[in-house]
Amino acid sequence: MQFDIFFSICQTEVDGYIPTETVMFQNFFDQLALADELGFGCAWLAETHLSCQIQKQNPGAVIPEFKGEIGLNTDVFQMAHKIFAMTKNMDVGSAILNIQCNGGPIARAESLRTALALHGLDSNEKRRLQIGFAAGRFPFSNHPYGVFPQNDWQKAAWPVMKSKVFQQATEIFLRLIRGDIFSSDEITEKYLERKDFRSDEDWEKVLNAYGQPTDTIVVPKFWQFRKIGVIPFDIRRELLWLTVGCHDAEGQDWANTFLPVGVFNLSITPGKQIEETHERMKKSFHPDGGPWKREYMPRTVLVFVDDSPGASEAEKNERAAKRANNALENYWKALQGTIDTGRIAHAVDNALVGSPEVVRAQMQERYNRGDRLMLWFDFSNHNSEEVKQNMRWFMEKVAPFVAR
Questions:
Q1: Are the C-beta atoms of residues 5 and 375 closer than 8 Å to each other?
Q2: What pLDDT shows up at residue 292?
């Protein structure tokens, strides 16, 4: 079992307190240094684009009750150079890089190749850039870059069409990372058909807006360009690992037609779906990557462990549970303006909560020996010393006793 760490750098209000951006970054780098010392495998960074607070001034605010910013990291490549400079052992990962904003997949591929070229200048360098990529969590981050429905039929089709657009971005991004030279005329055509939609009614709405009967609608190419090649050409591809952050099988399989690409899955994903994904990926994983491994599907999991000196086992479990409930209550209240007790209970059930002994048992019960976990300690918690203590407790009192 492999243990990575996930950093949200989420500037949300917790118990009436919102740290400054400076404090948020200071806490992050402090926790990062400890994570490297403790032996976490990869530091995964959440990535967010454009201010959530400013977006609330527009119609259709995505998180109207949220105070602060959902995340402060906007550029994994700049962060990676600083992180590699101040650590010795950890990989650096993005969870997740939006390849549709900030210039789209061409600009993202160029930034990645540049970062990789610089990172690989030291011939002794072994640490990897682990780039998780996706379409972005919030549509408002993509809108300034032209990724939104352009007319009525696209608006009707957008719940389905947006995944096809992401597949276009995926092809461009991965082919440029691979070193291909091509134009947009050579991008695979994508189509909308009845089978893509949940019901006849949904498909009919699209056709009515389209204005003519047809069995297939061609998805327009959102990125059009003459033949290009992305520099630098000289990169060490062995220092790069890719993971796609889409949850539809079609998108995951599509990415693997170009390069070996792992798959993200959340801790709340049902076990049956996780195992089905592993079985499918054994067949669709790109052959250049060798056989599929369970570690190629990292999973986020919230951690609330307690080993307070002098406390009984029951007291440790009670303290951990109280902290978990408080963190989740703060989070859901920040997002929705209310406390959703059902969501909180479900999230606590999926988190690792309790004394080291209880957390070990939870892990043995829920996870496979080959799994890779992205452990999340800073969730809705601005007490950096408390976060670091939880990191220590896990790596010193839990990790050594769990099958690895």
A1: yes
A2: 98
